[in-house]
Hints:
This protein is α+β, with helices and mostly antiparallel strands. The protein has two helices and seven strands, in the order E-E-E-E-E-H-H-E-E.
Amino acid sequence: MIPKIKRIIRPEKNECVMCGSLGYADMYIYTAPVSKEELIVCKKCAIREHYGTKTTQTKRYQKDKAERKLFGEKIHSN
């Protein structure tokens, strides 16, 4: 099961629940597939949870990168 991950944009500082890093940008809401619990995580942890422990080395990540996607959704550049 693939977890649901959405990017959040908040002006305040957020803390990643998984690794404890602090930051303003690149924070995501991670919805666990089994428990449906919502957690705030950083981009690194979100990629690890969505694509697996080898993160950027997986075939699925490489395919999404070639199609300009992240977490299965198109990347919109501003």
